[in-house]
Design goal:
111 residues, alpha/beta, three-stranded parallel β-sheet
Length: 111
């Protein structure tokens, strides 16, 4: 499955949701959750995320936790391989992988 440029944490506009967060941030998170639901239904062997997972180089802890939850859902539904293209922001991907007990493959291909 392929997904790209999700920009989790983008908070354009000033409208606040009923839960007390930026409405745009909530809308983007809901769209990402819906995309994960659709990916789970497809039962892919791997997921490729190209582009910006987060909108900022310093996402909130809330958005990092949300991303971890969604990738964890994918793992629970049988997706074992994830490929994140982060454009020089690999530390966030490493943090997600670490939280899930995963580690990146080495240059030689061994995990």
């Amino acid at each position: 499955a392929h997904i790209a440029d999700t920009h989790l944490g983008a908070s354009s506009y000033r409208k606040i949701s009923e839960s007390g967060y930026n409405q745009r941030e909530e809308d983007i998170a809901e769209a990402f959750r819906d995309a994960v639901d659709k990916i789970i239904a497809q039962k892919p062997e791997f997921v490729l995320h190209a582009g910006d997972l987060f909108d900022s180089a310093r996402p909130t802890n809330r958005m990092i936790h949300f991303a971890i939850e969604q990738v964890s859902r994918l793992r629970r539904h049988g997706v074992e391989e994830f490929h994140f293209y982060t454009l020089n922001r690999a530390e966030l991907t490493y943090a997600i992988c670490h939280a899930l007990g995963l580690r990146a493959a080495t240059a030689g291909g061994a995990a």
